[in-house]
Structure formats: structure tokens, C-alpha cells
Amino acid sequence: MENRLPSSDKQFVESLIPQKFPFVMVSELAEYSENHLISGFTIEEENIFVSNGIFQASGLIEHQAQSVALHTGYQFYLLGKQAPTGYIGAIKSFEAEALPKINDILKTEVSILNEMMGVTLVEIVTKINNEIIAKSQMKTVVKE
Q1: Can you tell me the distance from the alpha carbon of 135 to that of 5, in angstroms, rounded to the nearest whole number?
Q2: CA dihedral defined by 103, 11, 136, 140, rounded to 10 degrees?
Q3: Among candidate residues 104, 95, 20, the one with its CA nearest the CA of residue 64
Q4: Prediction pTM value
Q5: Closest CA to 37 of 55, 10, 16, 22
Q6: What are residue 136's DSSP bridge partners?
Q7: HSE-up of 112 (CA within 13 Å, CB side)?
Q8: Residue-wise pLDDT tens for the chain (144 aa)?
Q9: How far apart, in whole angstroms, are the C-alpha atoms of residue 67 and residue 74?
Q10: Which SS3 state, helix, strand or coil, does residue 68 take?
């Protein structure tokens, strides 16, 4: 398989996650390793999580979860396999220091802390212009 990183090719990035328009909250795959990923996402006015020009906390959580899905999707892409569907199993913590505005560009770093039997514990940090705006720790579950 071809390693195509970084990639902001909309079709390629969207092919790696199960979500479809208008529910796609990732637009770039910047870096990938077995235990790490950096994703990107530009907040657009038409986004379903934007209210009065502000991207809501629920959208940040979904963006972070989709960043984890992007990690799994790219991992399976490299193996030449179809990625499984995943779900948020639990949100252990979530803190938002600020909410993004229209045209802000999110950069999100996913760190895989532990992965066992389809359950992945991840730590996620989202930044705008290198300033941390949100942090979370969640468990994701892959549907078998």
C-alpha cells in the first residue's frame, strides 16, 4: 500500500472512517505511527456542530473520536483491509479550555495508551495555533 502522508485529500481521509457527510469531523491525516496520530480539521460555517459561529464541545468530542477512528482506519488501510466500525465506549475525562470558531484549524494528537481485545484507551489533545484547547481520555471499542 502507498504511504500518502501527510494527506488532506478529502476523499482519501473520508474513506478511512465510517462517518459520512455531514458528520465528518476530520479533514487531514498529518502523521501516523502504531501508537500515535495527528489529524486536522478546519471549522466551516455549515458544520452541524457550529452554533453562532462557535464549534460546540460536542463537536470537539466527535472530532477527537473520529481522530481515533482515523488511526484505526489508516492502520487497516496499510494492511489492505476494510476498517471496522468503532464506538466511544467511555469518556474518562474531557476538558475544553476554549471553543473553536469558524475558520479555526484544529490539530489533534492521539496517543494510544493501551489496546486489548478491541478496546483502545487513548489520550487526545486538540490545539489551535499550538495552543491546547481541549484534552480528553476515552476508550473506544471496535465492533467485531
Answers
A1: 24
A2: 160
A3: 95
A4: 0.93
A5: 16
A6: 94, 124
A7: 21
A8: 455 688 888 899 999 998 888 899 999 999 999 999 999 999 999 999 999 999 999 999 999 999 999 999 999 999 999 888 888 899 999 999 999 999 999 999 999 999 888 899 999 999 999 999 999 999 999 876
A9: 11
A10: helix
